[in-house]
Amino acid sequence: MTLIENLRAEARAAPESGIVAVMNRGRDRDGMIPLWAGEGDLPTPAFITDAAARALAGGETFYTWQKGIPELRQALARYYVRHFGKSFAEQEFIVTGSGMHAIQLALDAVAGKGDEVVYLSPAWPNFAAAAGVAGAVPVAVTLDQSGNGWSCDIGKIEAAITPRTKALFVNSPSNPTGWIADSETLQAILDLARERGLWIIADEIYSLFHYGDSRAPSFIDIMADEDRILFVNSFSKNWSMTGWRVGWIKVHPCLQQVFENLVQYSTSGVAQFMQRGAVVALDEGDAFIVEQVERARAARDLVCGILAATGRARFTVPQGAFYLFFAVDGITDSRAAAFDIVERANVGLAPGTAFGPGGEAFLRLCFHRRLDQLEEAAHRLAKWMKGV
Question: Which end of the chain is least crowded, N or C, by CB within 10 Å?
Fold first, then answer.
């Protein structure tokens, strides 16, 4: 037996990220416009970094609360009052080492070897991969796509549920499609979860990146206190903190100790000086979020206009998140297309193959960047489309 054959089968089967594969092909190219990753191009604003720097200089470098410092959990409670109109106790929040860590802990809590977790696809690939590493079986239910946009067929979710199903994973607004579950869809999913005794893992990281009202509909709007819902979230998108790796889970207060234990046996907590920055992000960052959303809206409209004018690109204008998920007439292998675009257009996109069933013919473009760069990228893509 080789060394690799002695590893757990689940570890050996963990897939290479289809997004990272394209990034590795093009990241060192001169003049590359990188629109492949799910992040904006603004650094973390100074009012956040200054708070973290003060804490670091002040010696806040020791072990701290596994579940997060009280000040941060209190700030999270205030955030939900402002943006969701609901009051939650600080005991309902657990600070995690990124949104990805929050998802891993949620999976650790509700699904294990042989269990099934149903998710809506196309989807950010990390959830399905993390479920597989945990020993669970990810079951994709594809969103429907038509001239009217993306939609969710509740009957398809119901048909995917088996006696082994433990949880439903719902990401709305969606990465990569920009689909938003309306209140009726969320209620139908919640009713189904209640009926079948399932957990819901709700990824609402893009709630405030919504191009309609101030935020997208949320399970928080319709849930009862005892519903089996775990909310996973992150500081990455709202406050340009992708590299900080700080997130949170909102849980029922009776689950606090369980999740504190899970933090203890995974990361043992988030650095205290980073949490100080996160407190300031929550309490002082609302105006920054508004600016980011308006910036992304303008970028979305610019890119959609240029690509629509080619007559080759097919897409639904996204109503949430900050991605354009588009297909090109005549292109069926988006992975090959993404590599070709790197080589011939010097633009980095994520291939739809990376996002699971339903995404194969699409490409994902992150438009959360400055307008001049996006305009150049869109024109390069338009030129590439003329040549294929």
Answer: N
